[in-house]
Amino acid sequence: MEIRRNNGSSYSFEGPLMLKDIKNTSGIYAIIDHRFNGKFYLLDVGESGELQKRLTTHDRKDQWEKKQQGYIEFYIHYTPYITKEDRLQIEHGIRAYYGNENLCGER
Question: Is this model's pTM higher than 0.90 or not?
């Protein structure tokens, strides 16, 4: 799945993945609401140095569940060679493109 950023670039995300199949390494995650009409809606985006751990214990799961109208899917863009600051820039760019006010969590 391609997910865009506010500077016009896009990133390829692997998925949908089950939590058990997500590597516990660094990357960007996208929480997608796959609706029954076949459309996909971005619920949340974030970054972590330990993706599987972060998603397993995520503090915004309840927000995803309140907003979902279909079923939640996990998509991952692994970033083993970039810094946390670079991951944050990607996250903020994606949030800016999709409208931070439309996504779970505040940045």
Answer: yes
